[in-house]
Design goal:
Layout (H helix, E strand, L loop, with lengths): L1 H5 L6 H14 L3 H16 L5 H13 L4 H44 L3 H29 L5 H4 L3 H17 L4 H15 L3 H4 L19 H17 L8 H11 L5 H13 L7 H33 L3 H5 L2 H29 L3 H16 L5 H17 L1
Helix pairs in contact: 2-5, 3-5, 4-5, 5-14, 6-13, 6-16, 6-17, 6-18, 8-9, 8-16, 9-16, 11-14, 12-16, 13-14, 17-18
């Protein structure tokens, strides 16, 4: 990493910051699309990064907790410009969508009780279930295995964690961090036990690192801060993987939002560019105004920033550690299972009649067969259909 920092890059700090500002403003399509844009723009077209640098950043983003696209952006800023580069690219990527969700939160507070707004979100809520359901399916076959016996058999333990994640989420209607950690530790111990377990005498230190615009309550801000900090620190992979964790806390544990408001919050994340996780800003605004939005967004993205800048200098060594890879695989299997369980819970409350069921099914079919149709367009079409159904 030091060698990389010493080589004069083909771009300035201003260039890379402006790029991520534009990507955060216009980059639709979710984490997979966003990391694809970075590869196309920065590696293939501009030549600012080598293929090796990009792949190292993507691997780190997948291993560390937090939103995938934001982590990769922070790493890319770090490659040639260190801590300052990581900070500026991270802020440039997140701020545009944060501003948008705050503005949408203000509009939602003002008009959320009106019939036309409820009609719009009637269709949107059903479409969101379809989108999350498809994302859960794609994440399942990507992170665990395809639904084929030959692929399932060697990954049976991960599938067990996955099913346990679904079951516990559906039964308890909340997500258990301890379950995620237990799955990660168990899989690591079975598949790739670390050296310090084989030789207990050499136990290293630190094994675990591990529109009331201004209307807010101090205690609520503390609760928001602690809850969203855990969300940012214990959720791996796609931004949508954070949905079940948020649902369990925001709706079930604290009762900050009801089911329909939560679905609307996820929908807002779908129709805004940048990282999907920025929905935390919208939720924070509804709970405690602008201070709540700031606290929720800051503490959610803080862990991924700290993990990235801390691990980046020594990442090559970390990436080869099979124990760490196994730990992450175990956690990810249970987290994706929790996402599926969350889709079931939220779907049962959002698919309330035949029209919403048809919108949900149509969304899934559109995602399967209309490859170039992005989520924001689907959300827009569903909003129009929902409004027409309610008006007619």
């Amino acid at each position: 990493m030091e060698d990389q920092l010493s080589i004069k890059p083909a771009y300035s700090l201003l260039n890379i910051t402006k790029y991520f500002l534009k990507l955060g403003t216009w980059g639709f399509g979710g984490p997979v699309a966003l990391v694809g844009y970075m590869q196309r723009d920065l590696v293939e077209q501009k030549g600012w990064l080598t293929e090796r640098e990009y792949k190292e950043g993507l691997a780190l983003a997948q291993l560390a907790p937090g939103p995938l696209a934001a982590q990769l952006g922070i790493y890319i800023g770090f490659v040639h410009y260190g801590l300052l580069g990581a900070t500026l690219t991270g802020l440039a990527f997140v701020i545009p969508s944060f501003i948008m969700v705050v503005l949408l939160g203000m509009a939602y507070q003002l008009y959320g009780g009106l019939a036309w707004m409820q009609a719009v979100f009637y269709g949107v809520g059903a479409a969101v279930i379809g989108i999350i359901g498809m994302s859960a399916y794609k994440l399942t076959i990507k992170t665990i295995s395809k639904f084929e016996w030959a692929a399932i058999k060697p990954k049976w333990l991960l599938w067990l964690f996955y099913i346990i994640g679904i079951s516990i989420t559906v039964i308890t209607e909340k997500e258990e961090i301890l379950l995620f950690l237990a799955c990660g530790i168990l899989y690591m111990l079975i598949k790739a036990p670390p050296q310090w377990i084989k030789k207990p005498a050499i136990l290293p230190a630190g094994i675990l690192i591990s529109t009331g615009f201004w209307k807010y309550d101090g205690k609520t801000l503390q609760e928001i801060g602690w809850f969203f900090l855990k969300a940012g620190a214990f959720v791996f992979g796609s931004g949508l993987a954070i949905v079940p964790f948020l649902h369990g806390g925001v709706v079930k544990e604290f009762g900050w939002l009801n089911e329909h408001q939560f679905i609307d919050a996820v929908a807002v994340a779908m129709i805004t560019p940048g990282p999907v996780v920025i929905t935390v800003g919208f939720i924070g605004y509804l709970v405690a105004g602008f201070p709540g939005a700031c606290v929720a967004a800051f503490v959610t993205f803080l862990p991924c920033y700290l993990f990235t800048v801390t691990l980046a200098p020594s990442f090559k060594k970390i990436a080869k550690n099979v124990s760490i890879k196994a730990f992450v695989e175990g956690i990810t299997a249970s987290v994706i299972g929790a996402l599926v369980g969350s889709v079931i819970i939220i779907g049962l409350r959002s698919i309330i009649d035949i029209p919403t069921a048809l919108i949900g099914i149509a969304t899934v079919l559109a995602l399967i067969y209309v490859k170039k149709l992005q989520e924001p367009y689907i959300i827009g079409i569903a909003a129009i259909i929902g409004a027409l159904i309610k008006v007619l």
